[in-house]
Amino acid sequence: MTAPAPPEERGLARDEVRLLVATEEGLTHATFRDLPAFLKPGDLVVVNNSATVAAQLDAVLLGRGPVVVHAATHLDDGTWLVELRTSPAADRPILDALPGDRLELPATGQLTLLGPYRRTGASPTGEGNRLWHAALSGPTPLEQQLARHGRPIAYGYLDGGYPLASYQTVFAACPGSAEMPSAGRPFSHELVTRLVAREIGVATVTLHAGVSSQEAGETPLPERFAVSALTARLVNATRAEGGRVIAVGTTVTRALESAAGPDAMVVGRRGWTERVVTRHDPPRVVDGLVTGWHDPKASHLLLVEAVAGPALAQRAYDEARIAGYLWHEFGDSALFLPPRQ
């Protein structure tokens, strides 16, 4: 069951969503504000400080009619990675666009589809061409058009539109995520204070999340990330002293693992990452995971299995379905604490 609205719209504080704690000893039902009770002094909670931007924009696909554009990523060469979806609810991807198709934007200018997004040596993303390289023409940068005419990326399972503030975590400081790093949303300032009071550390990384791959079963897109030298030192010291590194979300896991060497030492690093954490390429430094609930075909679920182990992940998902936990960005949470390797 999908959460249709932010918890505040459902009469809950952001840290009152449900939390399923999964360990080798069993499964425990709690609320998110109980999180400190399941961690230990000396553990380190790592969060993503990327802020969500308004990345959904109405446009007109010339010769076809209204569409919704998801502006996933601004690439280093000045082009954009975009997704086209059906208007008005963005509930389905448009898979039959063609190179050269043009999109009229709300302000002056057009986006021209240059070609389907491809990974090196791989076929286009998804079934058909879901993601495109696009070039902007006109005097108004796309960032300005998004800021003026855009809205947060949302899908048809929500019961309405919600302001950009609803898509921010309390850690949001560096704008750049097309979709919210939602694992961190249930944290409140009071909860962070209680973590620190229990001598549980809190550190930040930055990873600007692109568009979701929930429909296509795709691996994550390349994403910009930064792990500071300070966070690297905190992670290494935590592990050296026997504490656990708890990643808040798949984005944090990806960032930390992108900065970890073969010796499991983390260094300060920034740039683009294509790291995909799976059971076949498992995490080196992440010991536990705070996360939302993902669809069966989502690539995020492969990362959850890599951290938690497939058996523990399956038990947790089976229990969450039976107990009616809510899925997606405004839904409930899980804390996976597998045996330390």
Report on this model:
It is a single chain. A hairpin with a 5-residue loop joins β6 and β7. This protein has 341 residues and is an alpha/beta fold. The strands form three sheets. A nine-stranded mixed β-sheet has the order 2-1-17-16-14-3-12-13-15. The protein has helices at 142-149, 189-197, 229-240, 250-258, 299-308, 310-323, and strands spanning 18-23, 26-31, 44-48, 50-52, 56-61, 65-74, 80-86, 102-104, 110-116, 131-137, 174-177, 201-207, 223-227, 245-248, 269-273, 288-291, 333-337. It has two domains: 7-52 and 160-337, QueA-like (3-Layer(aba) Sandwich), CATH 3.40.1780; 56-149. It is globular, with a radius of gyration of 20 Å. The longest helix has 14 residues, at 310-323.
Concise description?
With 341 residues, the chain is an alpha/beta fold.
* Main beta-sheet strand count, sense and barrel state: 9 strands, mixed
CATH architecture of the largest domain: 3-Layer(aba) Sandwich
Write down the CATH class of the largest domain. Alpha Beta
Outline the low-pLDDT stretches. 120-127
Count of helix runs: 6
Global shape: globular
At the fourth level of CATH, the homologous superfamily of the largest domain is QueA-like
- Quick one: how many beta strands? 17
Amount of beta strand: 25-35%
Task: Please provide the ordered H/E string of secondary-structure elements.
Answer: EEEEEEEEEEHEHEEHEHEEHHE
Report mean pLDDT, rounded to a whole number.
93
CATH names the topology of the largest domain as QueA-like
**What number of structural domains do the residues give?**
2
Q: Helix- and strand-based class?
A: alpha/beta
Q: How far apart lie the N and C ends?
A: 33 Å
Cα-based radius of gyration, to the nearest Å: 20 Å
Strand order, biggest sheet?
2-1-17-16-14-3-12-13-15
Could you estimate the helical fraction of the residues in percent? 10-25%
